[in-house]
Structure of Transmembrane protein 254:
Amino acid sequence: MVAKSEAGGAAASYFRVARPLPSLVTVLVLGYFGWMIFWPESIPYQSLGPLGPFTQYLLKHHHTLVHAWYWLAWMIHVGESLYAIVLCKSKGITNTWTQLLWFLQTFLFGLASLYYLIAFRPKHQKQT
């Protein structure tokens, strides 16, 4: 009988870095939301084109909703990160460091990272 770690060989430490553009978009959107919530007085609204007045409108008329969406987004990222760990285990990714990398990358970039883990299809070797 082949040991589980040998059967999973390459799968045990499978990791793929998320694509830069979707990752950058995620970071910019979450960063901008954080800026809106924690330092709204420092935003140069006039320099942001149509985004400036829209941001002012959201903060003036939907302040509570903006806060709720910000924290909901982070809660979703936490959930995605925990799901990444579950996926790692179910796909035979047993290396602790690799699992941590998937957790952190998914926490920071969300679906931009999780997509690659979901799409990963480990090769199952026959057990003898």
